[in-house]
Specification:
There is one protein chain. The chain is 0% helix and 42% strand. By secondary structure, the chain is mainly β. The radius of gyration is 15 Å and the shape is elongated. It contains no helices and 10 strands.
Length: 122
């Protein structure tokens, strides 16, 4: 992926790690790497001249209120978190980063990023 292909407020990946494209200016892109611990991020930037071309687009699924999905909290420093079935309770279409309010079987509610959810394919 090249610098000129980037779009703001989208997801890309490198080495299987998700980055959110926060802002793009004329010759600089600002990224946030997620998963160091829950909802923490490492902010970095690249200029057009030093942008690594090994980034790839990261396609995320979209959901509607009432949909069920598999949720796995993103934390790349941990080896494994159990996936659980959740229900989408709210969709924030103005926020490409934390888009969904989800509820689990125990009625616990939290915000989820799109990269933490995957569709259930029956």
């Amino acid at each position: 992926m090249y610098f000129h292909e980037l779009k703001p407020k989208t997801w890309i990946q490198r080495d299987n790690k998700p980055y959110f494209v926060r802002d793009i200016y004329e010759n600089v892109v600002y990224l946030a790497l997620f998963g160091l611990s829950q909802y923490s991020s490492c902010h970095c930037y690249y200029t057009q001249d030093n942008f690594p071309t090994d980034f790839e687009p990261l396609i995320v699924s979209t959901f509607k209120i009432g949909d069920q999905a598999l949720y796995q909290r993103l934390e790349i420093t941990q080896k494994h978190f159990e996936r659980q079935i959740v229900t989408i309770k709210q969709v924030d279409e103005q926020d490409a980063l934390s888009t969904y309010v989800i509820v689990d079987n125990e009625q616990n509610m939290t915000w989820a990023m799109p990269i933490e959810l995957e569709p259930i394919n029956y």
